[in-house]
Amino acid sequence: MTESSTRVEAFSDGVFAIAITLLILEIRVPRGAGNLWAGLAALWPSYVAFLMSFIVILIMWVNHHELLRMVQGVTYPFLFANGLLLLTVTFVPFPTAVLAANLATAQAKPAVAFYCATFVVNALCWNILFATMVRGGLLRPEVTPATVESVRRAYYLGIVVYLAAALLSFIEPVIGLLINVSLWVVWVTLGYRADATADR
Amino acid sequence: MTESSTRVEAFSDGVFAIAITLLILEIRVPRGAGNLWAGLAALWPSYVAFLMSFIVILIMWVNHHELLRMVQGVTYPFLFANGLLLLTVTFVPFPTAVLAANLATAQAKPAVAFYCATFVVNALCWNILFATMVRGGLLRPEVTPATVESVRRAYYLGIVVYLAAALLSFIEPVIGLLINVSLWVVWVTLGYRADATADR
Amino acid sequence: MTESSTRVEAFSDGVFAIAITLLILEIRVPRGAGNLWAGLAALWPSYVAFLMSFIVILIMWVNHHELLRMVQGVTYPFLFANGLLLLTVTFVPFPTAVLAANLATAQAKPAVAFYCATFVVNALCWNILFATMVRGGLLRPEVTPATVESVRRAYYLGIVVYLAAALLSFIEPVIGLLINVSLWVVWVTLGYRADATADR
Amino acid sequence: MTESSTRVEAFSDGVFAIAITLLILEIRVPRGAGNLWAGLAALWPSYVAFLMSFIVILIMWVNHHELLRMVQGVTYPFLFANGLLLLTVTFVPFPTAVLAANLATAQAKPAVAFYCATFVVNALCWNILFATMVRGGLLRPEVTPATVESVRRAYYLGIVVYLAAALLSFIEPVIGLLINVSLWVVWVTLGYRADATADR
After folding, report:
1. pLDDT category, D3, cuts 50, 70, 90?
2. Which of B18, B61, D143, D171 has the fewest Cβ atoms within 10 angstroms?
């Protein structure tokens, strides 16, 4: 049972590590005889998109890590719920590339909305994974109902806030991106709190 | 011996994780000054191909995982039979890209047939791997002849059904894809059954 | 606690391994009906860029490896400081491609300067990671203050020397690259020394 | 010491797994309105190149695996000798793409020669790695001088045979490729022998 959990971690870590590293492939070398600095500067939408997706995948990896520490074993439904989550993680390089290609154009609104919508689905998958863990009785006995409630609320919040970000992007794309950034603070703070209360 | 088995798992997990994550590279950002939503919607064959290949590689990873839990050690022929299987896994992004590029065109029939044919070869390799395990005496003593027979039949079924899917694709490509989807149910159910009967 | 450290290592190793392997994707097959040897020879800037980035990522991986051996556990800030460092590692294929595309052109100066500037930021992140380890009390008790001071000085030196390399590239790009190469000797020697003083 | 060895294995496995999986990215989907089967068939040089490189990297991974089982610990020079070997492994997708692009053209001779020459350098690196292990006293006491001699001779043979393959490719490229294939038999047989004599 422990062995299984190890392999899920290894596979998930692999997917997170590859998805986070593939992001750089979307930044293309500026071609043309012009000034290189100008060409590099013109890539700012690519840097913004790269940074945003890198940070969010990193935070997801840390959260995944914390989540699996709550687990005492894995079941078949857990493997597939985890796989569904990973599907949304491996998808991230695509909306990132869409964002990079359109952020400085007239198509910025749909690009940001699509980017945020990806994370609505991702947030949904975190909820499904956690529900699978709770229903399957996979949580360690030392995980308190208060922690379960706090994780559940944070994951639920993710769906709502990303949905709001997607909708507000149609009015002003910068707001959509800023909401994304502000969510980082929520996830990181949540993790810190779990860290402080845990007596590992 | 245990150490060897660990490294085979790590290498295989790496290959599965990379192959599953590379799939996203085949979905290209829509270019052109038109409406972005229309451009994203026009990519539906890419999403279908991505989803189908992601799910099938995920299921393969879970099955590989179950299979290696039956093993008490690895031999040289096992390493190469496993490598042959991984060859067909790393190949998957190519037929996936072929499927994505042709599903909405007049070439849908050969594209789906080629996609299914890839999994005929893949199913053959699962049979070879399992035969190598059985003949090499690598199975743990607690693995019953009934389980061996059930796994063998399921793997054999894979060859037959994927072959049927490939052939039927020449008549109607949608049928070929639906057979692929229905096979997921078979693999997942098989896993569940093994899960229920195992008293780990 | 140990388990957490193991997963950080696994994730970091994954990122290092993927970043180092993706470098090859930037070397494009020479196209055209001309002589293949001439085409392969004309790619020398790509080989130089590939070699330089491969070696520096390899050295970074070895150093990361040594650094984590000093640690007795990981905390939340450590995970993010490590993530920040990995961000600069996954970024490396991009300046490498910029270097390869421009080294043999009139844009060699900005290309080398940009390449070196990337490592200024990278060196900064090594400093941040080490400071996080020291302040968080994560170092094993057997790590002496002398070792801490020596690592800190080496990391600080990294910032200064890469900055000098970036600036000197504006005068003569070859000097910038040679300073990069000479830094390898510093890192490797540093590692050897730590190896010699450790009594494991 | 054991921990270090584990991380070298994990990193090396990662590089082997990524290099072997990236090979598929070089096979491009046939474009154009023509018959898809004809387009897929015309890619035969890509399939040949993919197969050859997949098999040789797989064999290298198995051999690396066997080699590290002979080791009782790792040193700093070992890490760099191993890194040098990995450099030649990550390089493989490039000569593979060169081979695929030129095998069916008038440039087949230089393409095969370049492909073989890559493995001359690779074989050299295996020799360097093994020499580093022997000189550093890293071999387990149960590794007999006869085994050391047999491994050394096999690795030395690699250099000579790949060099012959590279040179003969200038006369007839098919001979060069066939020598590559025949070398697989040598490596696999060598492994089998080591397997038979080991009393794990």
Report:
1. very low
2. D171
